[in-house]
Amino acid sequence: MRFQDQVAIVTGGADGIGKEIARKMLAEGATVIITDINKAACEETVRGFQAEGFNVHSFPADVSQKNEVIEVVEKTKEQFGKIDVLVNNAGVVRDARITEMEEEDWDLVIDICLKGSFLFAKYTAEHMIAQEYGRIVNIASRAYLGNPGQANYSSAKSGVLGLTKALAKELGKYRITVNAVAPGLIETNALRNHPKYEKIKELQKRDSPIKRVGSTEDVANAVLFFASDASSYITGDILHVTGGRFG
Ligand SMILES: NC(=O)c1ccc[n+]([C@@H]2O[C@H](COP(=O)([O-])OP(=O)(O)OC[C@H]3O[C@@H](n4cnc5c(N)ncnc54)[C@H](O)[C@@H]3O)[C@@H](O)[C@H]2O)c1
Fold first, then answer.
1. Name one GO molecular function term (predicted).
2. What's the whole-number average pLDDT of the chain?
3. 41 — alpha (psi -120 to 50), left (phi > 0) or beta?
């Protein structure tokens, strides 16, 4: 029960990796605020966890909208008294070759993956500084190394790593650590519904030393390490959850 009496915010927690992170933190005693742009999914996920007896709350919001982020952070502080852990997980892709990529595809991915992480870090850091404790875990991606067709996403995730390293240096003196997890290919509903699911799985098996697609649990285990006291002397770091694939 590493998170007993702790309060955590997980963005994009209605589905996929974020939902698994929330599940594992709840199982280890945390109070979890799940925030997501998809209000219906957010509420359904929270109802499911509440039925299991967990202390979990749904505060829907778009991470790229400053006022919505402030509202989630302030409501969390008012209702639960503190914020120990922030997991910046919300993210989207809008893939296209550079000549086909619309400005809107660029802006949307940067706004959600990068600006959203900045906004949540900025407004939770105020409270973490005051309480002299905090854990910020940013979900990057192996795509920061550069993926064809993902100029927007690769740039956003590289930016997330820059944000991680800058904040680690700023906030360390307040006992706040800031780290990133960079997943490779992870099996989520979106991947399972992909028309080329079987082909993608085969390629992953061929190209990665650990010959399988990653699970949401693989990622959540790494996030919980950074969110816990076991990592209190580690900051500004990146943990790759890629099955050993770095190219
Ligand atoms: N699945 C993978 O293979 C993989 C690999 C590397 C990195 N990642 C990263 O992991 C994170 C989670 O991805 P996932 O695969 O679980 O995706 P997912 O689509 O299953 O879940 C993402 C969640 O974020 C929410 N969301 C989208 N835009 C939002 C916004 N503006 N504000 C708030 N919530 C928003 C969605 O509604 C959804 O519930 C993302 O940051 C993604 O880039 C995923």
1. oxidoreductase activity
2. 97
3. alpha
pLDDT in the model for residue 246: 87
Say if 34 falls within a structural domain.
Answer: yes
**Catalytic residue check, 153:** yes
pLDDT digit string (tens) for 104-160? 999 999 999 999 999 999 999 999 999 999 999 999 999 999 999 999 999 999 999
Domain of 98 in residue numbering reads as 7-187+215-238
| Number of domains making up the chain | 1
Atom of ligand 1 nearest to the CA of 185: 3
Tell me, yes or no, whether 232 lies in a domain. Answer: yes
Has residue 91 been placed in a domain? yes
Q: Ligand 1: residues within 6 Å at CB? A: 11-12, 14-18, 36-38, 41, 62-64, 89-92, 112, 139, 141, 183, 185-186, 188, 190
Catalytic residue of the set 123, 144, 153, 174: 153
Task: Say yes or no to pLDDT of 190 above 90.
Answer: no
pLDDT at 140: 98
Best probe residue, ligand 1, of 43, 138, 186 (max atoms within 8 Å of C-beta) = 186
Helices (H), the chain: 16-27, 39-51, 66-80, 103-109, 116-131, 151-171, 189-192, 197-207, 216-227
Chain-centroid distance of CA 217 in Å reads 13
Q: Which CATH number characterizes residue 117's domain?
A: 3.40.50.720
